Structures are given as C-alpha cells and as structure tokens.
Amino acid sequence: MLIDTHCHIHEPDYPISFDEVNSNSTKAGVEKMICVGTSVESSRLAIDFANKYDNTYAAIGVHPHDAKDGCGDIRKLLSNNSSVVAVGEIGLDYYYEYSPRDVQKAVLRQQIQMAIGKDLPIIFHVREAFDDFWPIFDSYVSNGQRIRGVMHCFTDNAENAKKCLERGLYIGVGGFSTFVKDEEQKNIFKDIPLAKVLLETDAPFLTPVPFRGKINQPAFVREIAVYLANLRRVSLEEISVATTANARSLFNI
Ligand SMILES: [Zn+2]
C-alpha cells in the first residue's frame, strides 16, 4: 500500500474525475491521499473533499504565492475541522516571488504559530529561499517549540537536505526525482534515510517518468516508489512499507 501525501485533485480545474482518480489509485495500490490547500478558498475545498471521500484528507494553508492576500479564515477553518491533518502548504518562494518577501515571511510565521497551537504537522514549500527560511524555523525551536513536518517536493542541494534531516523534517520525494539529471540531487534521493522519506505526486504538476506529458494523478505515486526502489537497490515492498509508515505517523492517518 502507498500514500500520496501531497496532491491538488480537489481543485475545481483538476481535469480528472474523482471516480477515475480513485479507481486508478486502487489499481496502483495507492490507498490514501492528502489534498493540500494553497489559499483560503482552496483550503475550504480541500476540507469539503476530505469530508466527502473516505480515503482523502485535507491540509490547509496559504501558499507563499498567495501570501499577499493574508491568511484570512485559516485559523477558523483549523478550529472547526477534524478532517484537517496538517497545515500547508506554507513557506517562502523567491523563485517566482508572487508576493513580497516580507509578506511571505509574516504569513509563514502566522501559520507556523497556528500549527504549533494545534499540534499539527506542517507541509513546507521552500524554493530558492532557504537562507531566510532556516532562521525563521530555528527561532521557534530555540524557543522550545516543536515543529513537525515535511519539506515538500524537495529540489534543493545536499546541504539543505542535511539541514532538513538535522531538524527532524521528512523529505517529500515527488516526480522530480524521476527525471532529475543533476548527480548531487540524484544522490540525495538515493541517500536520505528511508525513515525520513514521504512520497507525493503534487498532482496535477510534476508528472513522473514514464508518464511525462500526461496530467499527474495520485496513482502515479507508484512510479516514484518504483524509481526509488531501483535507485536504492531495494524492493518496492521495502519502499512502500517505510514511506507508508512515515506518512501514517506524521499525519496520524
Ligand atoms: Zn503542492
């Protein structure tokens, strides 16, 4: 059994029906999926989706792209909903920089506080912004507060992978790992302790090999698992057992 810990299939413009997503997932051995919000509205939809379908769960939060609109009702949504398993995706994105950096930082801090207050894990999105991210993260830890979570869709270097692991974060491995050419990055996916790996599709984005060009879907998490098994010379079974146990323990699902 496999779990897709990060997808956006709840969005209204996602082109594949849940019936089809679900039957493909079942065939591929993917039994659970976490629908991740990126704005207040998208978070609301993720909760509705998770309430409607048994094997789906919701993560809610405002993505750095949308930070300019503030966190709105996220706090309220968090206090009213038991189907929410994480805060996310939240973080800093200086690659696109759709929101000003100071606003991204402020909105990240507000949402980290909410997660700590609810004792929920966090799904982090950090792109080309680790130099500003680590001081924020570490300020909570040096205050004696505990942050649990995952660095979603990891595409950075070995040094930042090491920093994630030193801080107890899981590393989200997605379709990117199946087509990355850079040797240092390839080695990261080979070497992260299995006890710290979570699988994710980020559907509809980042479709793994051999389905490049198609719309991504949770069933394809199997391709990522197969790729990792080959890369690390272990069985598919070993990858499945470890990553599923990790997802269950982090998200309590
Ligand atoms: Zn995402």
The Cα radius of gyration reads 17 Å
The profile of the biggest β sheet is:
8 strands, parallel
Strand segment count: 8
Ligands bound, unique: zinc ion
Poorly predicted sequence stretches spanning 5 or more consecutive residues? none
Strand order of the largest sheet: 1-2-3-4-5-6-7-8
Spatial shape = globular
Head-to-tail CA distance between termini = 13 Å
| Helix percentage | 40-55%
- The fraction of residues in strands falls at 15-25%
- H and E string: EHEHEHEHEHEHEHHEHH
Contiguous helical run count: 10
Structural class: alpha/beta
How much is the average pLDDT?
96
Polypeptide structure, described:
This protein is α/β, with parallel strands linked by helices and 253 residues long. It has 10 helices and 8 strands. It has helices at residues 18-28, 40-52, 74-80, 101-118, 130-141, 158-166, 176-179, 183-191, 221-232, 236-251; strands at 2-7, 30-36, 56-60, 84-93, 122-127, 149-151, 170-173, 197-199. The chain has an 8-stranded parallel sheet with strand order 1-2-3-4-5-6-7-8. Strand 2 (30-36), helix 2 and strand 3 form a beta-alpha-beta unit. The radius of gyration is 17 Å and the shape is globular. The two termini are 13 Å apart. The mean pLDDT is 96. The structure holds zinc ion.
